[in-house]
Write a structure and sequence with these properties.
The chain has about 160 residues and is an all-alpha fold. Helices cover about 95% and strands about 0% of the residues. It has one domain.
Length: about 160
């Protein structure tokens, strides 16, 4: 009877120990997945910034073409572009382009910051999942120790 109690306690403790190891590996794996997700979000932020710079260059070229066409249209109508209404029109175009550039820059920075924040959240989620798994593993390990202690107390009761 005592041998059966000892063997069953040891087998239960080993099972709990294996389950604890599995929990730790699952937690580590989940953290690795979260880290991969975080890196993807960081790459997305870099792409947003890079594409934004390309769009900015395109917008500047487009603005240059608009200003050139405005000057040509005004000169074809006999207007002097150095003062009066033509100068005001060119200044208005420049003001509108600058305002649009500010809006685009804000949207660009906001989008990149959002992607970076998603990366931070992914890392936090991974850390939390790993900590939770390690906590469950510790609980399982404790149950294994309790099983061994229970078996030892049963053996002591038999021989006591």
């Amino acid at each position: 009877m005592a041998a059966v109690s000892v063997v069953s306690s040891v087998v239960a403790a080993q099972s709990f120990s294996r389950a604890a190891g599995t929990e730790r590996r699952v937690g580590d794996y989940n953290r690795q997945l979260a880290e991969r997700d975080a890196k993807i979000h960081e790459q997305k932020a870099r792409q947003i910034l890079h594409l934004g710079k390309l769009d900015q260059a395109d917008n500047m070229r487009e603005f240059g073409r608009l200003q050139d066409s405005t000057r040509i249209a005004l000169s074809n109508n006999g207007w002097m572009a150095s003062s009066g209404t033509p100068a005001l029109q060119l200044a208005y175009n420049a003001e509108q382009a600058a305002e649009q550039e500010r809006r685009n820059d804000y949207a660009l920075r906001t989008g990149a910051a959002g992607a970076l924040e998603e990366g931070v959240q992914a890392r936090l989620r991974g850390t939390l999942e790993q900590a939770t798994a390690y906590s469950r593993a510790s609980a399982l390990q404790s149950q294994g120790y309790q099983s061994l202690l229970g078996g030892a107390s049963r053996v002591a009761a038999i021989f006591g």
